[in-house]
UniProtKB/TrEMBL annotation:
This is S4 domain protein. The keyword ATP-binding does not apply. It comes from Eremococcus coleocola ACS-139-V-Col8. GO terms for molecular function: RNA binding. The keyword RNA-binding applies. Pfam families: S4 (PF01479), YlmH_RBD (PF17774). It comes from the Bacteria. Keywords: RNA-binding. Residues 185-245 form the RNA-binding S4 domain.
Amino acid sequence: MANYIDIYQHYRPEEEGFIDTVLGWLQWVENRFLAYLSPFLTPRQAMIVSQLVGTNEDVKVAFWGGCEGAERKRALIYPQYYEVNEASFEIQAFNINFPLKFGQLTHGRILGTFTSTGVDRDRTGDIITDGTSWHVIVDASMTEFYMSNITKIANVGVHLEPIASDEILQSDESWESVFLVASSLRLDTLLSKVYNFSRQRAKDAIAGGQVKVNFIEMTRPDVVIGVEDIVSLRHYGRFWIKQVQGMTKKDNYKLQVNVLEH
């Protein structure tokens, strides 16, 4: 095992549990000379995995989320001799068949239905729409379970139809890369800068349960946001820090941020 002393100082305290998990995956691969496939990861988690594997000379890592540009991806940690292909990631996609005349689906309703089955969130990858149709990417081992247990989404009758990876929709989402200067990387500060409103309004939104960080509701305005963290604000959209480009002469952060409008 590579030397991981003091590695925790580079990450947030709340990420220590995930770091321990990843180090366990690395140990498993080193001891058994077999590949380990993770559940679906957020971009921030994928970055952490990549950084930790990068300190280890004996193993490599590859990521795939079912389609090009996927936001949530599985990590395959493997010995150097291992040959990786798309099938290695054990991913299945569904087309959600439903009557367009009698119901409307949303990302939140679909995700809520999949997680309400009792299966962990990390068994579901991206949920993609072109404005009309909806596709969901999942852990292939859950295919039969989902098909048997999900027949309705928000009172709309549905049928999950397995599809091949080359049939997956191209998302209608459009991200814009913006450059901004912020006095800190606090959540409330970044919300204020990205959406051009006051920090008090940002704090109110956070306190009101309207803000998520990496898909989990966040109620602390002072939490520090890192590279690849996904921040979402209800009715506004999502953003993530692509790069911290340095500091200004007044010690403000120069940031490249990708922004998705709602």
